[in-house]
Specification:
Length: about 190
């Protein structure tokens, strides 16, 4: 019985510390509460990858600071309800909760209510994504399928395929183009 209690306690601590899919929760990165939320129909079939065009980060403190600054800019200057991205990935290999799996984000005009937007911290026209950050994305996507947030046959696209932008940057775009779920021809999903 004591072993069972210890296993439950470890599981409980793991879930609390790591959140859903190992994501750093808003509470953990000191995020603001959204002004309003709109629920995202799930499972989602489309994942949009983008970048922040900021400096990169490699420490927990610096990555969390950048995520806070992005949220502040989105809410105070752009009048968004919350940070625009569903998730933000740092060079430290951690995934930060944005609007998350359940809520509509504000990352790609015309696609927000039918997609998950995942943003990498950095400028990937200049920088190469870290292996830790790429592994974090792959793990997040696997977990998203396992938890029913994403369809098993979801599609990954670069932000640049849907709107006029360089995002997610040439080097990150080149990386995701080689992945199994990458959708090269977006004609069927384009607004």
């Amino acid at each position: 019985m004591a072993l069972l209690v210890n296993i439950f306690a470890l599981f409980f601590v793991f879930v609390i510390v790591n959140g859903d899919c190992g994501v750093v929760t808003k509470e953990q990165w000191d995020g603001l509460t959204p002004i309003r939320v709109e629920y995202l129909p799930r499972p989602v079939e489309l994942v949009i990858i983008q970048h922040t065009v900021t400096s990169t980060c490699s420490t927990d403190a610096r990555c969390a600071e950048i995520v806070r600054n992005i949220q502040t800019n989105h809410m105070d200057n752009l009048n968004y309800w919350d940070i625009g991205s569903s998730f933000v990935i740092g060079g430290n290999g951690k995934v930060y909760e944005g609007t998350g799996w359940l809520h509509v984000g504000a990352h790609t005009y015309g696609y927000n209510s039918k997609s998950i937007g995942i943003t990498f911290i950095g400028n990937y026209n200049n920088d190469k994504p870290t292996q830790k950050s790429l592994d974090a994305l792959k793990q997040l996507l696997r977990c998203g399928v396992e938890r029913g947030h994403l369809t098993a046959n979801y599609h990954i696209v670069g932000h640049r395929q849907l709107i006029s932008t360089e995002s997610p940057g040439r080097k990150l775009y080149n990386e995701i183009r080689r992945w199994d779920h990458f959708l090269n021809d977006v004609a069927s999903i384009k607004n």
